[in-house]
Specification:
7 strands; 8 helices; alpha/beta; seven-stranded parallel sheet; 47% helix; 256 residues; Rossmann fold
């Protein structure tokens, strides 16, 4: 039986809400009563999500936003301010990966793209979120890192580096803002069956999925619902003393 969460009337901001974890999180937070601020670099995709949620009765502010672009981030948060009087929860979920390459085969353009979305994007959004939460001396922020932010990730070195950086920002912010009543934590999923991962596995054939499953202590990949339920738990008011935590949702991968 799934846990019932209460985010009634809280304002929940989710980046990367056009698909995958972000889309499902928007649906689950809306079902729990939250008012939503959603953005995604794919403006059309996140607009579709917003319209579906509004049709079901949710209040939503939506924007196309590249989280690595300071001007677009500032415009998104200005739109949130214009609609809502506060910010209670923020989930910094937007991010990108890259082709599997050895480190010496990567280039600076790839580095800039991955760091821009995954690390600069979290940094820019954190600045905006913390400034607003400090005014009310309360709030919960969840940064989506990765199992690759805890462990090394062969052939995904740039992605891994960016996600390690997210954990560094998370821990530092938790130490700085805990006394202000703001909790900052990081969620670290392993390979999960998002639409993007599923498409990649389908393109690679059955062997790729089998290899990933065999490498996990639970001998399977994660489900999106498992990750999103962890998001709800990490951000809920009942979970009021967890701050600076790095939360693996990985079937035990990081325990090895």
């Amino acid at each position: 039986m799934r846990t019932r969460y209460d985010f009634d009337n809280q304002v929940v901001l989710i980046t990367g809400a056009g698909s995958g974890f972000g889309k499902l999180a928007a649906e689950r937070f809306a079902a729990a009563g939250a008012r939503l601020a959603l953005c995604d670099i794919d403006g059309k995709a996140v607009e579709v999500v917003a319209r579906q949620l509004e049709a079901a009765g949710a209040t939503v502010v939506v924007s196309a936003c590249d989280v690595g672009d300071p001007e677009q981030v500032a415009a998104f948060f200005a739109a949130v301010d214009a609609r809502f009087d506060r910010l209670d929860v923020a989930i910094n979920n937007a991010g990108v990966s890259h082709a599997k390459l050895r480190l010496h085969e990567t280039d600076l353009a790839m580095w800039e793209r991955v760091m821009g979305a995954n690390l600069r994007g979290v940094y820019l959004c954190l600045q905006q979120e913390l400034a607003r939460m400090v005014e009310r001396s309360s709030g919960a922020i969840l940064n989506v890192s990765s199992a690759a932010g805890i462990l090394g990730a062969p052939f995904l070195s740039l992605y891994s580096a960016s996600k390690h950086g997210v954990i560094g920002l998370t821990k530092s912010a938790a130490l700085e803002y805990g006394r202000k009543g703001i909790r900052v934590n990081a969620l670290c999923p392993a390979f999960t069956l998002t639409p993007l991962v599923q498409a990649s596995l389908d393109a690679a054939g059955g062997k790729s999925r089998t290899n990933l499953e065999v490498g996990n202590p639970m001998r399977r990949l994660g489900e999106m619902e498992e990750v999103v339920q962890a998001m709800l738990w990490a951000c809920c008011d009942d979970n009021s003393f967890m701050n600076g935590a790095v939360i693996p949702v990985d079937g035990g991968l990081a325990a090895g």
